[in-house]
Specification:
Elements (H helix, E strand, L loop, with lengths): L1 H28 L4 H9 L2 H16 L3 H30 L8 H22 L2
């Protein structure tokens, strides 16, 4: 069961990522009407919603301890990202940084989640 879920998740992740990359490329390199631009921008949404549903269903299947660890990691990632966005906004006003890149925010959130997970696991050793 576990391998089957991971396989399905990986396939959906790769397919969703391909659509994400294509949409970004198309929006930057194609001459599209405003309506087509909105359509292309929203094209990645279904695959990403499926990925969210898959992760949530997997989290719901965990035991209470594992849920608590993941919850603490998500809280750290959420709060760290919020603080980072505020600080980034101030740095942007100061002219010290370039415009924000969504991929950078996503990478920061993933790193913050990993740090939060490590903190939570260490706490329960």
């Amino acid at each position: 069961m576990r391998l089957r879920w991971w396989t399905a998740f990986l396939v959906m992740l790769l397919a969703g990522s391909a659509v994400d990359l294509w949409a970004g490329w198309a929006l930057g390199h194609r001459d599209l009407t405003p309506a087509a631009r909105v359509g292309v921008a929203l094209l990645p949404l279904p695959a990403n919603l499926v990925l969210i549903a898959m992760v949530v269903s997997r989290i719901r299947a965990l035991d209470e301890f594992q849920k608590r660890v993941h919850f603490e990691a998500v809280v750290v990632a959420f709060l760290a990202t919020g603080v980072a966005i505020f600080i980034y906004g101030y740095l942007r006003q100061a002219g010290a940084v370039v415009p924000l890149n969504a991929a950078g925010v996503w990478a920061f959130m993933c790193a913050a989640y990993a740090i939060g997970y490590a903190i939570a696991i260490r706490q329960y050793r």
